[in-house]
Structure formats: C-alpha cells, structure tokens
C-alpha cells in the first residue's frame, strides 16, 4: 500500500522517510516550547511550533532532520520555529552527520511575528550555507500541501538539491499573494492547472530548480533522499560562476515565454501540453536529457 | 536619503559609481582603500534580472578584486510580484545572490549592508540580511508588510495590531524594531564616512544577531531555543 507524502503529517513523513524507529526528536512537544507571540494575539499555539527537529538514520547513515507541519499555520516560520531549524543546522557543525534533511512545507514568514520570522529565515539561510561550507550536504524534500514559498523558497534553493513531487510547489510569492496584489489577470490562483504548471514540481525540475521529480509516495522520497546522500557541497567561485551562467541563459532563452508550456516546447519536448498528465516515471523518461 | 547624496557623504575622499536605471555599482575611496559599492534606488522591486545583475557584480568583485570590502546599498520594496518572475524561478535567483554573497565572505571580503531608504521582505532577505553586519539610517523603513495588509490576512483588527505594536517589536514595521531584535547592528548618524570606517574595522565573527536581540530584549527566544537544539540531547 503506497503512503501519500502529500497527505501525511510531518511526523508521519519523518517516520516513513528515515530508517524505521530511528528518529529521536529534540525539544519534543512535551518540552512545551511554544510561541509567546501567538498567545499575545489570542491565536492558538502548537507545542512544537509547527516544526519537528531531531536525529535519525537514513540507509544506516546518521542524519539530522527537520519537518515542517503545514497543518499548523501553513508551516509558517516564527521565532521559535526558525530557532529550532537554526539550532539543528548548527548542531550539524558539531556532530557532522552524513547529511541534513529538510522536509519543507511552508508559506514563508508567519505574519503574526513577521519581523522575528524574517530575521529567523535569514539566520536559517546563513546556517544552511555554513553547514554546506563544512562539507555536509543539505537535502530538501518538497511534497506537502502548502508547498514551499516565501523565505523558505529561497532557503530550499540554497541547499544541495530539492527532491520534489508534482504536488510539491516551489516559489517565492504564492499565487494568492500575486493575485491579491496585482489582480486576477496577472495570476489566477484558482486556476489549479496554471498554478501547478507554473510552480509545481514538474516545471521546477525542467528548469533545474529541483534535482529530481518523484511520485507522491513516502517511499519514493526516501529512495531519492538516499541517492542524494552521495552529494558533495560545492560553494566555490567556479560553482557559482557556472550557476550564474545557467541562470543568465534561462533569462535569455525563456524570458519572453508566457507560459510553462512555451518553456517546455523550447526545451525540445514533443507535445509538451501532455506533461501535466504524466506519472512521475513516464515524465522522467520523456524529459531525460531535455532539462535546462 | 538620495543615493547620490548618500555616496558623497560615505566617501568624501571620492567615489566612482555608475547608475543605470534603478541599479548602481562602482567604488568608493576610504582611508583604508577602495570599497566596492552595489545598490538599488527608488524602492526597486527585485525581480530575476536585478537579482541576477547584483549577483554578477558580486562574482566580478570576488574574481577581480580579492578581499575588497563590499558595501550593499539596496533600496527595495521587496521581491517583484509577477507570474513571469515565478515562472522563471525567482526564488532560485534570490538564492543565487545569497550564495554569491556567501562566496565573497568565504573568500575574505567584508560584506556590509546599509539600509538607507527601504528594506522589505524578500528583497531584504537576499541582500543586506546576508551581509556580515547590517546597519541602517534612522529614517530607513524596514518591514515585512504594513499593518492594514497584515490585519486582512491574520484577521486581527488593525487597532489591536497598532496597540500591540507599542509593546512588542515582533511584527510591526520599523527600523527600531529590527534594531531591538538584533538584525540591525547600529543606526548610522552624523559622520557617515566615520561610521563606515568603523564598520570596516570591526571584527568579523559568527552570526551575532540573536545575541544582540537577546541583549537588547527584543528577541528573547531565538538564541536560547537554538542553543537548546544545538546542544540538547535527542
């Protein structure tokens, strides 16, 4: 029986992705580390502030892992939530695990504590880069109901790879934010097909924003995460110059494209309009060698 | 403050900075040598092209001018909100800029951010907030979102938010709030050239923002919670 990653809770995802019974939580709900800012606004708090952090094993290798719970405020980052993530990343500098796994699901900064959340995201950014600078890969898994947006969308792209399902969206400003600010003619957030082909996992993979597209199954995410353990972080000037060249080419090649389908056609994919209908395996076969 | 006036005050010994639309870059002269300057004006919305351009300039400085300090003067209303920017992966461009700043830091460049006008959300995150240390002018505006928009989304009455913002720095716009919470190290006033030289001479260390937030009583949990996770038992 296949377990959907999209439908699973953050705790269920950790249990299914890591080796069975290997996960040990740090500051679990029983520690009652909650957000004082939500209380001040009479908004319900969560005993884990919407993020679970701890140690475990993946394919026998020691790893640190964090999972954001979209069911609590859309996985939004507040002061405590962000500090747990920063602390976990810095723990990696001391314990030197094989990798750090981030099971992201977040709409970005939590507005109820917006300043603390924004600062926390920038501290997470610095910490991710410090961990990678120490030679430890940081692996992102993105397949939750809220996707990965706002500052967490930037964080995800600071990491070594993003493993994504079609359902796992990745971007900066969410479609609703763009529609509210710029109007429905700019981005119709209720047009689900448009939303998914713009910020969904298939387009992210074809652009080179995500490293691997997997099916919506916890076992598929686990298998891809095991493969990603072999990655070696590279923050050299040469690596950044290569990335710079690729991003420059992306603007040149696709800057005038109106829709994701135009980009897929420009990549040489035949009948690109069928891509949203394909299962992950067929998608990967058909698009092999044609990614930007 | 106007960017050209700011540059004159920062670099009385001279500067060569080229403006192109909302983007500018160049060098300024200090007592300790040349400083590279990269910035934006007119509350620029940072879209893929602008993020790419700033990142390219950072890489050019690392490649051609080893260890030259970098001063980021980014005036931004935040990330550009558009479907096209999302289609092209704007978060990847923002992350690229952040990585380029990190590469500069690791190569021995001092990176200093100065918020001289506006700093908002994603545009702030990917630039000045990634500097070794970020400073601001007293009249600068720093925010994620204004209170009326915040009220609409959180469904909390704006009057309530206004009242609470008198007591707590945690959500309301304001450079003072970011100062109290440790993200802004100091406000620069008076002799800006002297402020810059002092900042350039300051020691570079770890990310000290949560320590400052705790010392200034503006962010009490970030430091202790991170320490508990870093050192606590699983």
Automatic annotation (TrEMBL), chain A:
Keyword check for Transferase: yes
SUPFAM superfamilies, sorted: ClpP/crotonase
UniProt keyword Transferase, yes or no: yes
GO cellular component: acetyl-CoA carboxylase complex
One Gene Ontology molecular-function label: transferase activity
CoA carboxyltransferase N-terminal domain span: 1-237
Protein's name according to its UniProt entry: Malonate decarboxylase beta subunit
Organism, as annotated: Insolitispirillum peregrinum
Automatic annotation (TrEMBL), chain B:
Alphabetical list of InterPro entries matching this protein: ClpP/crotonase-like_dom_sf, Malonate_gamma
Protein's GO biological process: carbohydrate metabolic process
Pfam family membership, one: MdcE
Gene3D superfamilies assigned to the protein according to its UniProt record, in alphabetical order: 2-enoyl-CoA Hydratase, Chain A, domain 1 (3.90.226.10)
Domain of life: Bacteria
Protein name: Malonate decarboxylase gamma subunit
Provenance organism: Insolitispirillum peregrinum
Lineage: Bacteria, Pseudomonadati, Pseudomonadota, Alphaproteobacteria, Rhodospirillales
